[in-house]
Amino acid sequence: MKVLTVTGYKPMELNIFKVDDHRITFIKAAIRKRLIAFIEEGLEWVLISGQMGVELWAAEVVRELREQYDVKLAIIPPFESQEERFPEPIQQQYQELVSIADFYKPLYVGYYKGAFQFKAKNKWLIDKSDGCLIVMDEEFPGSGRFFYLEAKGWDNYPVYSITPADLDDVVEELRMADPDYWT
């Protein structure tokens, strides 16, 4: 797999309302673990649409991984200025990530015109990638369900997931890596 789309929950779907919430550390660690495995198998590009939450956290992980691996980041928002509706700290995060992306281009010129832009974005990301990684619980899929359902409808399109159980495993791994855990 050379190109992977990453998506998942928005922060408010996880009851995360601050950019420094400690739970983000665990989500990013789970994404990092999966991305490293894909990179070591030949992954070259990570695609996101730049939505708040999992996608921006994944972009931050890619930025960090670039220090050790040759991996590129593409941000393909559904329309221009999607970040205008984001809270100010997340707008800043978005702009920083756009500035370091290897490729950035909105699918539609202009502002939000309708839900069709999000549907087109999902189809485009699936068409241009070899598979996807989605942070989602199938019981409580949140807004990621739209991408997930679209992806599941495509033939020979692998859908990899990070589930709540995977996140629990990462939390435990990180706790056990702390030397104070064993004392």
Automatic annotation (TrEMBL):
Lineage: Bacteria, Bacillati, Bacillota, Bacilli, Bacillales
NCBIfam families reported in the protein's UniProt record: PRK13660.1
Species the sequence originates in: Lentibacillus populi
Protein name stated in the entry: UPF0398 protein YpsA
Any Pfam family matching the protein: YpsA
